[in-house]
Amino acid sequence: MKKRILIIEDEKALRETLEDYLREDGFDVKIAMDGEIGMNLIKEEEFDLIVLDIILPKKDGFKILEEVKEDEKRKNIPVIILTNLESVEDIQKAFERGVTNYLVKSDHSLIEVSEKIKKILKI
Amino acid sequence: MKFINDLNLRKQAENLGVKIWQTPGFLFIILGLVAAIIMAATYFISKNYDSPQVLVISESIVATVILAVGSSIINLFEQVARINKMKSEFVSVASHQLRTPISAIKWSAELLLEKYNKGLSKKQISDVKNIFDLVCKMNRLVSDLLDVTRIDQNRMIFRKKKFDFKKIVKETINESSILAEKRNIEVNASFKKEMSLGFGDPDKIKLVVENLLSNAIKYTPSGGKVDIRLFEKDHFFVFEIKDTGVGIPEEQLKRVFEKFFRSDNAARYQTKGTGLGLYIAKNIIEQSGGKIWFNSIEDIGSVFSFSLPCHNGKMAEIMKA
Questions:
Q1: Buried b vs exposed e over B12-23: b needs ≥16 C-beta within 10 Å?
Q2: Cβ contact (<8 Å) for B99 and A84?
Q3: Confidence of residue B40 (pLDDT cuts 50, 70, 90)
Q4: Is any Cβ of chain B less than 8 angstroms from the Cβ of A66?
Q5: Cα separation of A2 and A5, whole Å?
Q6: CB-based contacts of A106, cutoff 8 Å, min separation 6
Q7: pLDDT band for position B227 (50/70/90)?
Q8: Residue A17: its chain B contacts at CB < 8 A?
Q9: Does position A11 have pLDDT exceeding 80, yes or no?
Q10: Tens digit of each residue's pLDDT (9 = 90 or more) over A76-122
Q11: Which numeric CATH code is attached to B161-320?
């Protein structure tokens, strides 16, 4: 059974490269280009892991994180924040809301992101 | 000598990037002139008039003049400070905006190289590799610029935790082995078997080690040697890196840790380089409770060293507080 991953990211090039890379690495990948579409997908479908940007149109990443963690049925889905914001306040805010990992885009290559995901999903 | 230099307004204005009438030297002269005029006026008035009205009026005129000159000096300073702040804000915003496109280019090149390289010719692969390497450099430059603006605005944030310093040094040596091999530089390292843990921000300390090591490799001619030592002394680590590189000319030794400084021979030897690495390193080490220093002789080589608190020492206790 392929693991299902949802990527919520508004920047087209970043979304597509990450999507292709993870698909090549054997994941079943679904994408959303804004927060609202992303949140709807989370409610309608089942995912093993969510990759989430912070700055997003319509609904930001923190709001989505909160909604996922408040939802009894979905609060155990691991969420990785993938962003270029790197202030301590943002990182703290994310961990307080129960994020599993916080990655800064510029500091990570695709292979590193993929490996972190595999580690969380114990693949 | 310093005084004469302070009075060379044109040079000062050039160095500071401000107009001549905004230089501290100019303001200093104005202040002196005001003081002299006030003294002369007081002397003149007290000699020629002895009615209290004249004294009160002249004193209030003097007070007004001092206030006016003082406030215009303060205004000038404020303006200079504001421009300076705007400059670093500009760098900060511009760098931040660059990060997303840079990440996207980097990831696209990586995807092409790692997953979609079937059917690409050797030449095409080597071209994409060039794109990848260059965009990584650009990424590093942008990170450095962001670090510099954070240092300048006092916004650099340090995590405080225990970490394995020896492991960081070993990792960094491994990661730069390709560069060292390519440039035919032998890198040796010696450690004690049992070492304490460090205390501070491991990522930032790693950045410093990376910086010093890549400098040592970059500025050492082919066939040269780089020796790394890590030891403990009085609850401090001492990291020492010695190269047989181009060294730093004596007259420029004082400027090594300045922002954007590159020594003449270093710039000749390696055209690439921003002069930000050691500036950032010095700030990180000092903020982490350590010190950084060096010895260098041109054409013989350099030894860069820094100290860093061990987690069980007094300095770490002070930093924890």
A1: bbeeeebeeebb
A2: yes
A3: confident
A4: no
A5: 9
A6: A84, B99, B102, B103, B139, B142, B143
A7: very high
A8: 104, 107-108, 110-111
A9: yes
A10: 999 999 998 888 788 889 999 999 999 999 889 999 999 999 999 98
A11: 3.30.565.10
State ipTM: 0.90
Any idea what the CATH number is for the domain that residue A63 is in? 3.40.50.2300
CA separation for the pair A12, B104 (Å, rounded): 9
Instruction: Report how many domains make up chain A.
Output: 1
Gap from A71 CA to chain B (nearest CA, Å): 31
Domain ranges of chain B: 161-320
Contacts of B303 (CB under 8 A, 6+ apart): B240, B241, B242, B243, B294, B295, B296
CA A122 to chain CA mean position, Å: 17
A18 at interface of B, judged by CB pairs closer than 8 A: yes
Give the range of the structural domain holding residue A31, as residue numbers without chain letter: 4-120
CA distance A17 to chain B (A): 6
A54 vs B78 pLDDT, higher one: A54
Q: Which residues pair with A6 in a beta bridge?
A: A30, A50
Residue range A18-41, pLDDT digits in tens: 999 999 999 999 999 999 999 999
In a mutational test of the B interface, the residue from A17, A56, A114 whose CB has the highest number of chain B CBs within 10 Å is: A17
Q: How far is CA B296 from CA A57, B114, B147, B241, B304, in A?
A: 54, 42, 26, 12, 8
Dist CA A50 CA A72 (whole Å): 16
pLDDT band at B53 (very low <50, low <70, confident <90, very high): confident
B111 and A88 within 8 Å at the Cβ level: the answer is no
